[in-house]
Known about the structure:
By secondary structure, the protein is α/β, with parallel strands linked by helices. It has two domains: about 25-375, Divalent-metal-dependent TIM barrel enzymes (TIM Barrel, Alpha-Beta Barrel); about 390-430, no CATH class. The protein has 16 helices and 14 strands. The chain has helices spanning about 40, 50-55, 75-90, 100-105, 110-130, 160-175, 200-220, 245-255, 265-270, 275-285, 315-325, 345-375, 375-385, 390-400, 400-410, 425-430, and strands at about 10-15, 25, 30-35, 35, 45, 95-100, 135-140, 180-185, 190, 225-230, 240, 260-265, 290-295, 335. It has an eight-stranded parallel beta barrel with strand order 5-6-7-8-10-12-13-14, surrounded by five helices. Strands 1-2 form a two-stranded parallel ribbon. A hairpin with a 2-residue loop joins strand 3 (about 30-35) and strand 4. One nickel (II) ion (NI) binds near residues 230, 266 and 294. D-xylose binds next to strand 8.
Amino acid sequence: MTDFFADVPTCRFEGPETENEFAFRHYNPDEVVMGKRLEDHLRFAVAYWHSFAWQGQDPFGGQTFDRPWFGEGMRLAKLKADVAFEMLERVGAPFFCFHDADVRPEGESFAESRRNLEEIVDYFGVKMEETGVGLLWGTANLFTHRRFMAGAATNPDPDVFAYAGATVKSCMDATHKLGGQNYVLWGGREGYETLINTDLGREAEQAGRFLQMVVEYKHKIGFDGQIMIEPKPQEPSKHQYDYDVATVYGFLKRFGLEDEVTVNIEQGHAILAGHSFEHEIALAASLGIFGSIDMNRNDYQSGWDTDQFPNNVPEVALAYYEILKAGGFTKGGTNFDAKLRRQSLDPADLVLAHVGAMDVCARALKAAAAMLENGELERLRAERYAGWDTEDAQALLKNATLEHCEECVIAQDIRPEPRSGRQERIENLINRFV
Ligand code: XLS
Ligand code: NI
Ligand code: NI
């Protein structure tokens, strides 16, 4: 036991009336909603990088957090792991997610970095065994080190492509060894700063081949988790190739990977792309590529990817509504890819940020489930499209030609009558639940 969380108790469900800030008001892991325990619906994960590796810097200032594990070397990496697992237990999160670079010291060579990773993976293995915590997903950090400044798979230098391939292999091995449920590729610097020095045709070919290699390796080692791409439109590069769900789907189709790869959708990235979170989820579900979510919001005024913990129940409810409607998570889950504000220095802040976020998600999921069970929203939606349920309408959809449309309109003297979309009525209905 470290003494980092000495003043922070383990948080449990106490119900909405409790005065205890170290308690859940809405997240009772054992509560059954739509036939499933809340813990199994939500599948919460803590992001190792933001909570334990990020030091509080922003573009105008450096480190604000003072953590006993900051620094180099294996001893400190293990101390960081000790504290991380203590926090996972404090908040009762069933999963965590990690990048190689936030768990192990960087070595002098690739081989040394890999050895460091393997040592930490063994250390994690023991901790996971002791605590019962699982790995939701692993991933590679292909964006912090200067070697990746011009991208990883899409780099103009083939040596970087090879280095990225070797790195992803080591991270897939680590994820597989720890029984990880998924493997994520967020396109770090796979994009460009300026088109005047960029061959985007070539870079897309490289990215496509790289992802095929990942899928080939997954099958080779018998990893049965999902391979997921995490779309993002910009930041760090001016233009990121995995812009949004629609763009990623086109990319997967182009390289024949649409049945092999799903998406990890982040709320903040959806907003950066000019979409709502629920739009991205609904689109992915309709395309059959929905995988998992990163539950962290942006500040709506500043327009950056500020990675804040969720704090808006009505908004989060619409996201879970789409997820439940699509059948819920299978291997995916709710990863808090969120960081504290840089002034939130206390160990308690770290725990309470997660407790609050888990409560927001639990309230939102229960509201979404109630909406779905009530059925009125889906009934209104179905009613709106009811005209398409007739045999004639289905025949029209399958066999129509423009000439046929013309014939029908003239022969039957068709004069379409507009009907209300009933938006405000439906908004009122939703507000009864959230
Ligand atoms: C960055 C991404 C990153 C991924 C994992 O914006 O959200 O944190 O989730 O590499
Ligand atoms: Ni992000
Ligand atoms: Ni993310």
